[in-house]
Amino acid sequence: MTEKIQTLLAGRWRDASGPAYTTEYPHDGSAVAELHAATAADVDEAVQAAEQARKKPAWARLMHHERAGLLHRMAQGIRDRAEELAQLQRLDNGKPIKECRALVASAAGTFQFYAAAAETWEETLTPARGDFLTMSVHEPLGVVGAITPWNSPIASEAQKMAPALAAGCAIVIKPAEITPRMAIELARIAEHAGVPAGIVSVLPGKGSVVGDALVRHPLIERIAFTGGTQVGLGIQRLAAEKLMPTSLELGGKSPTIVCADADLDHAVAGVLFGIFSSSGESCIAGSRAFVHASVYEPFKARLLAAVENLRVADPALESTHMGPLVSRAHRETVERYVQLGLDEGGRLLCGGGRPQGGYYDQGSYYLPTVIEGLPNSARMCREEIFGPVLALLPWQDEDDLIAQCNDNDYGLASGIWTRDHKAAWRIGRALQTGTVWVNTYKLFSISTPFSGVKMSGYGQEKGRLGILHYTRQKSFYWGLNEAPLPWARA
Ligand code: NAD
Question: Which of 196, 218, 233, 395 has the most beta carbons within 10 angstroms of its beta carbon?
Answer without folding.
Answer: 395
